[in-house]
Amino acid sequence: MHYRTIAIGVSLAALLIVLLAGAMPDSWFASVSQLLVLVLIVVMALGILLASGYDQDPPPRNKWYHF
User: Considering the entire predicted model, what is its pTM?
Assistant: First the structure.
């Protein structure tokens, strides 16, 4: 599973929603989309934090490093 492509896709979708909401600022869609974008950003940030831990190898252990 490629977390980077998922994150790019979600951010592009959020950008599209923001642009659509900007086109009609006085509608119910604008407030709903702002809330949705906020939720998307929080979920994406959590997802990237979780995914970055799994993508990388653990740091190599140095057995001579005692402190």
Answer: 0.40
